[in-house]
Amino acid sequence: MQKKLTFLLLSFFALLLSPFLFASDKGKLENSLLWEVSGNGLEESSYLFGTIHMICPDDYFWSEAFENAFQQCKQLFLELDLSDPELLSQAQTMMMSSSEDDEKWTDKLTEDQLNSIKGYFSKKMGLPENMVESQLLGRMSLTGVYQLMILQSLTCQMPDSYDMNILKKAQEANMEIHGLEDLEVQLAVFKNADEEIFIKSVVELAQDPSKSDETFAKLIEAYKEQDLNTLHELIVESPDTEAMGSAILEDRNKNWIPVMQEAMKKMPSFFAFGAGHLSGEVGIIQLLKDQGYTVKAVK
Hints:
alpha/beta, elongated
């Protein structure tokens, strides 16, 4: 459990939601998680890689094409700079409920809803219900609890992380490591989310966990097939999208483009972020094409 929580904290704001929030689709994309960026004055190519932030070790894969592209780059950009030693404590703080809140999110639940959530965590995590209420629901923020519930859809005890593995590879290669944005930017995504929708999602997950498990299994399969179009189809009606709002995703993608352009001018760069950021009219691929770059799938 501790390792799960550590992974969750490290990647809390760039973990399970952001990779699968999609804007509207603009044409079909080839099946590939890896995309080469060239042209528009670049002396050397840079690469985009779509991650899924949590995956079971048996489903994890890293192809020769991925490795070759990575080896050609001299700096790494993740959504957040996960090498920052302060990030873990900051993310942990963000996951906790504020003691200054006049009304806790749990106060908005009916007794039946609260019992459903307590029963869910008691069964999934093997904790007494009174401990679930006092130590988990009583301390964690709504989005923190939601993320922890999504994590339970994984079928393994010790999940793997593309972000952390790529970070380790970059550190071993003495590459420069950067973040495309600061933690505060990702925090705003959750802060501005519709609380009622999130509460509804948490309750539904607790009452029918099999639905979430089935959807997550389909997402993993589509990711393994590198099928961005199916990922889009699976998630376009997700309550996460409704709660977060597509404008937040669009703003983030647009904010990343100048950072990426400046980085690519300096040296070949490897950009690793949630796979959902690749797709759509305001996806990274299309936005870079709009700036005059050639962006093509790497098989």
